[in-house]
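Teaching note: in complex prediction, the entire set of molecules is handled at once rather than each chain in isolation. The prompt given to students was simply: 'Predict the structure of this complex.' The entities are:
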Amino acid sequence: MEESSSTSNSTSNKGVKVVGFWVSLFSQRVRWGLKLKGIEYEYVEEDINNKSPLLFELNPLYGKVPILVHDGVSFPESRIILEYIDQFWPHNPLMPLDPYHRAQARFWAKFADEKLLDPAWFVLNLEGEDQERAAKIVSVHLEKIEEMIKGKKYFGGNTIGFLDLVLAFIAYILPAWEEVASIKMVDPSKFPGIATWTDNFLNHPVVKTEYFPPKDQTLSYYKCRRHELLPLYKSYGNKIWTYIGTQ
Amino acid sequence: MADEVVLLDLYGSMFAMRVRIAFAEKDIKYDNREQDSVNKSQLLLEMNPVHKKIPVLLHNGKPVCESLIIVEYIDEVWNHNSPLLPSDPYHKAHARFWADFVDKKVNDPARRIWLKKGEELEIAKKEFIEALKLLERELGDKTYFGGDKFGFVDVALIPFYSWFETYETCGNFSIEEHCPTLITWGKKCMERESVHKSLADPKKICEIVFTVLRKKYGLE
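The expected output is the structure of the full assembly:
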């Protein structure tokens, strides 16, 4: 992480800023995390398809959103940001309190980002047999998530927490990708636990009242991405399966 | 009731080495159970059904998986001595970031160095050195990544040091030539008992890679 330039107006030395992208599921985690803690923040929009120098100033290694800027110090990587927020402002804890459940939350968060998101992204941006194959991989991984939510209102238990925020993309991004790519990934009849959790999550008073990417614009955005990426991913051929692992 | 602490281990795995170093730093006694990566045991498959990989920590029968998650768990549970993570939020986030960087940017190209040939090998070497150089810059003139104290990022990276000889042999290059400060750091870490007792012998790793693994992947 880098200390931001103190001369830049957009990175002042006090307060909390989130540098994000309006539809980024990673940025959205941080926004919800801060809202759950009742922390006011300034939002700075960054077009990830046309990256500004600010992005590389604040996140020189990865040049990605989200970035939390707190008292002039920048923090990238959404899961690391959430744990930082949780530790710095310990009220309304996001992480479980005991080490074992904290380890489980971290494990499933890593799993979601590394094993679930990649094949889901390929479902959005592939077609035909390749798309079906990617969807099968998503389905196998969702079974594990379904197992985890059984009997619980939220992944955090009775209250929303870190893992709910990390897995939130299942509730609103995957349905958008399903609609754009004309294929079902999160079938409620197959994943009733996830379906119920989705309702609980999207109706949570804090989730509802914080900024939420507008649905129509979200669909248009991902339609464009699919249009651009379909030919590119097709050209990768079998390399895709090496990348996301076979199931 | 005494704690039951079991590690499902695999000789040569840098991920398992991380956990062994953490245990040694904290002077924790545990039962080390070497696993077979080909014929995976029922215990491994039960305790890590998602990835079916080592290391797995079993603490009173409850599994914790993924090496950096295990190391954090160890640090939180056995918090009476030798803290591996800083206590303040900023430095903790900073340590997590760089440990994660090792997993994201060092591990994959490192693996490709001994797995690939020709142009793919050259690309892997370039990416590997680039990542090490960034880590070198982060280290700066500190003794350890943690500053004066050996910590989380050191634990994350030092096991790869035991594989350096293998990478250099496969790739026909010298890591010290590109990253001398990192080699100095590696030697300093190796002076710690927790490290030199936990790291695999570089010569044995080389032997395993050349006589078993590369053959398995059709490279020898």
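Point out the following to students. Chain A touches chain B through 22 residues (CB under 8 Å). Residues 64 and 195 of chain A are 31 Å apart (CA to CA).
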